[in-house]
Automatic annotation (TrEMBL):
GO molecular function, one term: sequence-specific DNA binding
Keywords: Transcription, Transcription regulation
Pfam families named among the record's database cross-references: DJ-1_PfpI, HTH_18
Superkingdom: Bacteria
Residues in HTH araC/xylS-type domain copies: 212-310
PROSITE patterns listed in its UniProt record: HTH_ARAC_FAMILY_2
Protein name according to UniProt: Helix-turn-helix domain-containing protein
SMART domains reported in the protein's UniProt record: HTH_ARAC
Length: 319
């Protein structure tokens, strides 16, 4: 068995209590694979953005023994005009090669330390303009839920902290362990899409004359050839009306949605079975393995075999 992976969580003044607790809640649900401890820049109590402070057991010296360091977000009123310099200076205690993770505005600390220069990163969409103006050398992607750039991972707000922690477990120990942790936390093991889906826009209420029934039929028959006219017939609409109503209700065209569902189903089969790629392609309705490879690469940038190697777990295969 590999030694327990040590995760240090650095609490900065104005920290959000919910996000501060995410690493402990997620990693400690992984059946002893991780040890999580919380520290501050000076070992003293830390004022949160709520009406209470927290007492921590560790100071910055604890960072030297960490395998992973997580920087949770702090209130945006602490971002301008300066990132907390004590937090930036504290990162000097981190051993080179240690994995670094930020949640939401925690990315400001990594960027202020120069650790994100020339690298891709994300943060909460509401502070993306401020971040880009402050750190123009960072390749900011304000739509991503999280970005894995090897030894540094950045994530957006709140729930994306769950996403990135589950991603780490999946990367370290495979899909089965990550899925079990997600069940313990009553959270989805993987969320598709980006932050754009959380920016508020009008969505019509579902009605009996909507496209929900057609979508359910499509999900139950993904393995079959399917056209937009088939969806229109199951919705009892003309093709033109289907496209308009579907886009209003779902936020994307029916053709794009159908491809997304097939890719999602293929990803699940790649993670949980040993089925050949050709067979998986057939089960999810793609014409063949070439079509599956093209669509999967367009969606997430990797081949089916690379995805399977990554999300079946690299560490778990050696235990």
């Amino acid at each position: 068995m590999a030694p327990t992976h040590r995760v240090a969580v650095l609490a900065v003044g104005g920290v959000y209590p919910f996000e501060l607790g995410i690493p402990s809640r997620v990693f400690e649900a992984a059946d002893g694979l991780y040890e999580v401890f919380t520290c501050s820049v000076d070992g003293r109590p830390v004022r949160t953005n709520s009406d209470f402070s927290i007492t921590v057991e560790h100071g910055p010296e604890a960072l030297r023994t960490a395998d992973t360091v997580v920087i949770p977000p702090f209130t945006t009123t602490a971002v301008p005009p300066e990132v907390p310099q004590t937090a930036v200076q504290t990162l000097a205690s981190v051993t080179p090669g240690t994995r670094l993770i930020s949640i939401c505005t925690g990315a400001f600390v990594l960027a202020a330390a120069g650790l994100l220069d020339g690298r891709p990163a994300t943060t909460h969409w509401m502070v993306a303009d401020l971040f880009r103006a402050r750190f123009p050398r960072v390749a900011l992607d304000p739509d991503a839920l999280f970005i894995d750039d090897g030894d540094i991972l950045t994530s957006a707000g709140a729930a994306s902290g769950l996403d990135v922690c589950l991603h780490i477990i999946r990367k370290d120990h495979g899909s089965e362990v990550a899925n079990q942790v997600a069940r313990m936390c009553v959270a989805p093991p993987w969320r598709d899409g980006g932050q754009a889906q959380f920016i508020q826009h009008p969505v019509p209420e579902a009605t009996a004359s909507g496209t929900a029934a057609a979508r359910q039929w499509a999900l139950e028959n993904l393995h079959e050839p399917m056209t937009l006219m088939d969806l229109a017939e199951h919705s009892h609409m003309s093709l033109r009306t289907l496209v308009r109503r579907f886009t209003e209700e779902v936020g994307m065209s029916p053709g794009r949605w159908l491809i997304q569902q097939r890719v999602d189903r293929a990803r699940h089969l790649l993670e949980t079975t040993n089925l050949p790629v050709d067979e998986i392609a057939g089960q999810v309705g793609f014409a063949g393995s070439t079509s599956l490879r093209e669509h999967l690469h367009a969606a997430i940038g990797v081949s089916p075999l690379a995805y399977r190697r990554t999300f079946r777990g690299t560490l778990s295969s050696t235990h």
